[in-house]
Amino acid sequence: MSTPLHDTPQPETAAPQEPKPSRRGLLIGTAAALVLGGGALAAYELLGSSDDGDSDDGTTEFKAKFAGTGLVTNEYAFRSPNAKDAHDSPDWVVTSGSLFTRNGDGWTGVPDGQSPGASSSQHNGSAVFRLVTKRRDFGDCTVQTQVRLQPPTTTSRTPKQDWDGAHIWLRYHSPDQLYALSFRRRDGVVVIKRKTPDPQGIGAAGEQGDYVTVAEGKAAFPYNEWHTVSASAVNHKEGVRLILSIDGHTVLDTIDKDPLRITGAGGVGLRVDNTDLDFRGFTAVPAAAAL
């Protein structure tokens, strides 16, 4: 069974149009799993950048860097990439919402439900926040970041949902093909989900892909505190091993054996729903060979 999601951004290869007020929640399906454990901001352009370096195995690491306070990029830049007033980032694409930096950290802003303009000074749209790297060469890798979440809110566009919170994206090929590892949801559930295009060309609620649960459990850390989260994806002969850890403790560890498992490299990023999120120290590095 599947439930609709409402976060569909415009395709990156098509001429984007103004997004309709919509959002998607994470779909619950079934799969074999092993569980171990609105405010406005007067923004100015300030790009978040990265430090990239080659690892011993030749894989390029990614280390996000933010400086000062201001707008990094937003969905306006995604929809209007040729606009002179668009705030582009060399590292990030925001397909929904706005990415700010404050005091050297990444930030969603206090989320609201209205689409932002070029500067995100009146509205930020971050009640539906979708952030992914421009790089799409992350294969066997571990993403780690420190996060601080405020309690979830609602807007007229985005009513209360169990999945409100924050999620790490791995192997992002498109808005309809990715892994989502939910590390703090309103309902306290941690989940690993796979999203793949529907073979019939249309998914739940008329969308182009469906989420299916690969693993889930319970783990809820306090709000308004800094916590460290990490997510890994590693190809094995039997499938894709996916691991979610919070503050150094593994909370989910599973192997996705489904024929639709995602084995190819892709982007990494964050999805945030109805939540004010700060993050720092975002890195993507080659996964340990022992995983």
Distance between the termini: 31 Å
One letter per element, helices H and strands E, the order comes to EEEHEEEEEEEEEEEEEE
CATH level 1 class label:
Mainly Beta
Low-confidence stretches: 1-47, 54-58
Can you describe this structure?
By secondary structure, this protein is mostly beta strands. The protein has one domain (49-286): Exo-inulinase, domain 1 (Jelly Rolls), CATH 2.60.120. Helices cover 2% and strands 43% of the residues. The protein contains one helix and 17 strands. Strands 1, 2, 3, 5, 6, 8, 13, 14, 15 and 17 form a ten-stranded antiparallel beta sheet that branches. A seven-stranded antiparallel beta sheet has the order 4-7-16-9-10-11-12. The protein is globular. It starts with 48 loop residues before the first strand and ends in a 5-residue tail after the last strand. Residues 1-47 and 54-58 have low confidence and may be disordered.
Write the layout of secondary structure elements.
Blueprint: E1 49-54, E2 60-65, E3 70-74, H1 75-79, E4 92-96, E5 98-102, E6 105-107, E7 128-133, E8 141-149, E9 165-174, E10 177-185, E11 189-197, E12 209-218, E13 227-236, E14 239-246, E15 249-256, E16 267-273, E17 277-286
Antiparallel strand pairs: 1-2, 2-17, 3-5, 4-7, 5-6, 6-17, 7-16, 8-13, 8-17, 9-10, 9-16, 10-11, 11-12, 13-14, 14-15
